[in-house]
Amino acid sequence: MSNEAQTKQNLQGNSPEAALRDQKYKALKNAHPHFLWSDLFREKKEGETDIIELLSSNILFRTLSRRELAYVSTLVYERIYQADEAIFRQNDRGLGMYMISKGRVSIRTQAPSSATEDVLVTTLQEGSFFGELALVDPDNIRTASAIAQERTVVVGFFKPDLSELLERKPAIGVKILFQLSMVLGKRLLETTEKITVMSRSPA
Amino acid sequence: MKLLTDQNLRRDFYKVLALAMTLLGFSYLFIWNPTLSAPTLSAIVVSMILSPMVAMIERRGHPRALAITILFILIGIVLFVIGAVAVNRGISQWDQFREAAPEYFNTVVQKVQALELRVKTEYPFLKNIHPSKAIVNWGRQTGEWFVNNGAALVGDILTWMFIVPILSFFLLSDGPNLRRRFFQMVPNRFFETTFGVVHEITTSISDYLRAKLVEALLVGLMVTLGLAIIDNKYAIVLGVLAGVTNILPYVGPIIGAVPGLLIVGLGTDSGSSLGLTALVYVIANVIDTVLIFPVIVAKLVDLHPVILIVAVMIGQEYYGLVGMLISIPIASAIKVVVMQIYRAVYDQSLSAKVEAKKNRMAAIPFISRSGSQAQD
Q1: Does the interface ipTM go beyond 0.90?
Q2: What is the pTM of this model?
Q3: Which helix (H) or strand (E) holds B39?
Q4: In angstroms, what separates the C-alpha of B59 from chain A's closest C-alpha?
Q5: pLDDT by residue (tens digit) across B187-198?
Q6: A154 in a domain, yes or no?
Q7: Structural domain containing residue A23
Q8: Quick one: closest CA in B to A118, which residue?
Q9: Whether A161 contacts A134, CB under 8 Å
Q10: Residue B93 has what DSSP assignment?
């Protein structure tokens, strides 16, 4: 069993507070029982993603203002995957991160022993994100496959767009990079702790 | 797992089909259509060259449309100033050059005729070859072409002056949006690869264009300055010619030097000596080859010289001057695509990386074992 995979599972940005805020947001969105009101104030059609909402609930974009989020939302790509369709496969070249807007994504790795058999590492729910290391890694190779488990809507944010952002709107880019380095740092910390514990335990 | 994924094969096929048709439609409208091809390509070139400047203005917090407007106004002012000062001088030089051109031509013909006569008296078997007649014919045809097509040429230039700025403006303001639309049409299984490849291609093309433009400007400037120092009357025209022909790899600098050397060499009153003129061209090209080219252009292109020459010739054949400028970046774009396909099919660097990672992973239990031994 690979340590890397377990770390990945434990370190997804899927904190309870985020879930709570999601819940609150959903409750607010359904707060108008009268159909007239809901029709008047609904900005998007049912089934479409509110990308700005999704971004603002993500840790990487949390510190951005509403206006900055609107700018970033013109740089991300909304993609729809059917059940069992791969978002990316292990050993592909990676270019960016994906945030799950709707649906579930399973993360799988090839077992070291056999080249064909996949091992389920974890299942990610709405609101979590994956693949963010590809945003900064110069020659990223995906360490696992990401497969949609049902009809899944993801929002992708890619390295060329991040560089473009840093070029044109450095203030926004720096905020995202700071949050990104925080996430990566946290993961490193947890990995270090885990390795420390493992190396101390008797063989 | 693989079988299940292939349920989406039909959908992806239709998506690729739709994508291909959209691309073909756009290229049919803008690139294969002879009235729009050259202005469109020029507009693409212009917008790629201007885009970093737009980014620079945007960085100061202006929205994109405003940034582009500011840039266009600035360029307008600069062009106006140049028009008022330098081009006047350049055009008068051009007029002089044009008036003197028939004279140069006649001198060439006379000299060739004299040479022909001398050679033919010495070698009678050459009497069926008529180089001077060929030159006269060529000259007459060129003249006729200008007389017949001059009006159309002016019309073309006016269309360009109107269309190129408009197209460039919209490419700069809506380009990112167009790109997004394009990527949204790409089927899921090719999405990230296409995204990466297209980005790599556009980056390499715009980097190349910018580098080449800077190089041409510098060479043109050096030649103009050098010729001005040795008091050549046609310094600006010859400098511009040297800059423009510099776009061609290998043969460009030679072609650029020919008019200058010919004018001086034919003994007309250009006001400078042949040796000094040649020295100016040589110095400018040595600086170009030794300093400018390696620093700003060479690292961007790694195509075989033969491929470069062939690409330039094909580009010139279909799209003229703009074609020559964009042929090499397009050739390198094709190379990027082919490399990606090669990598996807043969996977050497990738499999090497995966192998290296496997080795690293395999080394981990060994390390921890030795660690526990050390604890013992």
Answers
A1: no
A2: 0.70
A3: helix B34-58
A4: 5
A5: 888 888 888 888
A6: yes
A7: 3-195
A8: B1
A9: no
A10: H
